[in-house]
Design brief:
Blueprint (H helix, E strand, L loop, with lengths): L3 E12 L2 E12 L3 E5 L6 H8 L7 E6 L2 E2 L5 H6 L2 E4 L11 H5 L14 H14 L15 H13 L5 E5 L7 H16 L3 E5 L3 H7 L2 E6 L2 E7 L5 H9 L16 E11 L6 E11 L3 E5 L6 H9 L6 E6 L2 E2 L5 H7 L1 E4 L3 H5 L6 H6 L7 E2 L2 E2 L1 H14 L16 H13 L5 E5 L7 H16 L3 E6 L2 H6 L3 E6 L2 E7 L5 H8 L13
Parallel strand pairs: 3-8, 3-9, 6-7, 7-8, 13-20, 13-21, 16-19, 19-20
Antiparallel strand pairs: 1-2, 1-4, 4-5, 9-10, 11-12, 11-14, 14-15, 17-18, 21-22
Helix pairs in contact: 4-5, 5-6
Length: 510
């Protein structure tokens, strides 16, 4: 038996309106790569935030080195040797490597003056361990994303962390940077550093993992040594609970309304492409699935279509004419509408009522002689709310009074009030319950039946079987597969979406 260095026992986390974790367990073995997987909404991130002290548990117990560890902040977690590296890097681009590594815990000569030389010398020691041969005075902004990832690891190691949580660490990395990271993880493992590794990329789990734990619907499902399992086993355990019923129904489609030619979008850091030479078409009344892992370029592709990204190349044609508008408002006027991935941050206005959230993108419809017609607003919003089966006492209630699924219906309703020709849905069922998911599926089918072209983004394999007529698969910004509904299988999705794994130093399992 491997030594258990950290154990999460019967962890429950309840948020208003939802239970993110229910009596979930996790055992973490010392000096191993402990992989945690599950579909979106399975509770992985919540479990990691609790272990890292970012969130407080509702009930349950955390044990570190066999002793109960009742910590509630990241600083208290690091005192127990637990550090976390987020998917979105938490660095200050205008500061140096050393300044970032010692932010809020600067080494001082006295109570006032920072000892920059000692900070730099200490930073170099940790950078060398990670084979990052750059000056500690280098600005973070001057580093590639892969190098910034290594700085995050060095920052955590400098805090004496012996257990490091890595949340989707390869999602924004190039193939070469992934190879470097894997080599670093292998070296940390040899130094008896414990890694908790979250990833949707099943091929990479099989490549570097020692043990795997499956969560589903906030509950512990199973744990196994990676050497004893394969990808079909992972898929079965991830999806074996609430099977999403195939609600696909063939429908009559119209003529082509959208054609995208050779669309490319550079990454923000200037290294590589978030979207790389992608071409496809969409017909009126068609539901086009867009599948890919985190970092595949799905959201960036939709951002190009809605006008949020301007720095793309290639052409977008709507009903045979090249789209020339450069703003989001212009694209809405053209006939595009977007359901954003992050409902809480980008989708709803939490300080507004349901009515205001519903009509805000279509206010021009309700003006008469410079005056906003409240009766018209209420009538339109009420009709759409009824059509979408929104469960709310009144459209004058706060948007925050609704469940996640009903909030999502309000966002869809807002888009419909703009009379879209093309509806871009970025992971629209993320974080909502199974009943609300089926409501969204039925809404999609009805809208497609009315001739609206829909691009439906998801990282859930079962959803790709549920409603799309056709599925495109993105991997690392490139289009890697196209499947009609009748020929789609989970194995084809996994194969097409897998990243290419190459390492300079082959990772050692033993």
């Amino acid at each position: 038996m491997e030594e258990i260095v950290l154990e999460a026992d019967q962890i429950t986390k309840i948020y208003p309106g939802t239970t993110a974790l229910y009596n979930a367990d996790l055992k973490v073995r010392r000096g191993k790569i402990n992989v945690l997987v599950g579909e979106n909404g399975a509770g992985k991130s919540t479990m990691m935030k609790i272990i890292a002290g970012v969130e407080t548990k509702t009930s349950g117990t955390i044990y570190v080195n066999g002793k109960e560890a009742d910590y509630a902040t990241p600083n208290e977690a690091i005192q127990h040797g637990v550090g976390i590296i987020y998917q979105e890097l938490n660095l200050f681009p205008n500061l140096s490597i050393a300044e970032n590594m010692f932010m809020t815990r600067e080494i001082k000569k006295n109570s006032i003056t920072i000892d920059h030389k000692k900070q730099n010398d200490t930073a170099v020691q940790y950078l060398k361990k990670l084979n990052l041969n750059v000056s500690p005075n280098t600005l973070i902004a001057d580093l590639r994303v892969g190098q910034q990832q290594l700085v995050e690891i060095a920052k955590v190691l400098a805090q004496n962390a012996r257990i490091i949580i890595m949340d989707e660490p390869t999602s924004a990395l190039t193939e070469a940077e992934v190879a470097t990271l894997f080599d670093v993880i292998g070296e940390l493992r040899r130094q008896s550093i414990t890694i908790i590794y979250i990833s949707h990329r099943l091929e990479e789990i099989m490549h570097i993992g020692d043990y795997i734990t499956i969560l589903r619907d906030g509950k512990f499902i199973e744990e196994k040594p990676v050497a004893e399992i394969d990808i079909p086993w992972i898929i079965d355990k991830m999806t074996g609970g609430h099977k999403i019923e195939n609600v696909y129904a063939r429908r009559q489609m119209g003529k082509e309304i959208l054609r995208v030619k050779n669309l490319s979008l550079p990454k923000k850091n200037g290294h590589g492409f978030a979207v790389n030479d992608v071409s496809f078409s969409l017909r009126a009344g068609e539901i086009l699935g867009l599948y890919g892992l985190l970092g595949a370029g799905r959201t960036e592709l939709l951002e190009c279509l809605i006008g949020e990204q301007e720095n793309y190349t290639g052409t977008i044609e709507l009903e045979g004419k090249i789209v020339t508008s450069k703003t989001i408002n212009g694209r809405i006027q053209d006939g595009f509408a977007l359901i954003p991935e992050d409902r809480k941050t980008l989708g709803i206005f939490g300080n507004m009522i349901i009515l205001e959230n519903m009509v805000i993108s279509a206010l021009s419809r309700f003006f008469r002689r410079l005056f906003l017609q409240e009766k018209m607003e209420k009538a339109a919003a009420g009709e759409v709310s009824k059509d979408l089966n929104v469960k709310a006492a009144s459209i004058m209630d706060s948007i925050n009074s609704l469940s996640g699924g009903n909030q999502q219906k309000i966002i869809i309703g807002r888009s419909l009030l703009t009379n879209p020709k093309i509806l871009l849905m970025d992971d629209p069922t993320r974080g909502i319950d199974i009943s609300a998911k089926y409501d969204v599926y039925e809404i999609c089918k009805r809208l497609a039946g009315k001739g609206i072209g829909i691009i439906f983004v998801s990282s859930e394999m079962q959803e790709m079987h549920a409603i799309p007529d056709r599925v495109l698969v993105l991997s690392q910004g490139r289009l890697k597969g196209e499947f009609m509904h009748e020929e789609l299988t989970e194995e084809k999705l996994v194969s097409a979406s897998a990243i290419t794994i190459t390492t300079g130093e082959e990772y050692e399992q033993q």
